[in-house]
Amino acid sequence: MGLLSRFRSPREDRLSPALPAAAPAGADAGGNALQGAISRALRPSGGSISQMAETAERLSGALHMLEAAILAIDHLTELLAEGTELCENARDTVNTAKRAAIAERYSALLERIDAYVMNIAAGEANLIDGSRKTCEITLDAAGQSRVVLHVANLTSGPSGLDLSAPGEAFASLSAIDRSLAELAVAKNIALHTADLFADSAAVLSERLARLKMY
Predict the structure, then answer these.
(1) Where is this region: Disordered (predicted)?
(2) How high is the pLDDT of residue 184?
């Protein structure tokens, strides 16, 4: 199927029936001329077809970025759940040596979170590593149409999820409970961010679907 047929409007097909090769005797020449004018007016020019194809491609790219971020957050919540499990295990033991060992594993988990979040986008804009304040994507060569995507900082640092290193090597219950509280807040932030990305993806998907109707 050619590019023109992919973007042709159904309304154009209804209003612009193919004209016969030769008008039958007695046909209204003025009516045929009007139908031809309507057909020419509704048929996109070569430039507009190219612009729609370019816009569709850029919308698809933006959708791919959002989908990558949503999938990354899904895995991030699994890492946060792993952290919660570690803290609960530390809370269930009174052995300080075991708590210290768990604290080391928790510190390593925070490093894994940062490494993962900062490397989710190979060759594309990373929407969740805190490296940008905004992500604006132009949808045409002239820059007259654009979309602005949500961005977030989901690293473990103070400007992100604010997950602190295990205090006192988890020797006290208060230190463990602090980490548990931080993890609960971090999970809510991550899920809220995923919801924002999903809303944006739904809007762009609808826009892309409408564009492909013509």
Answers:
(1) 1-22
(2) 98
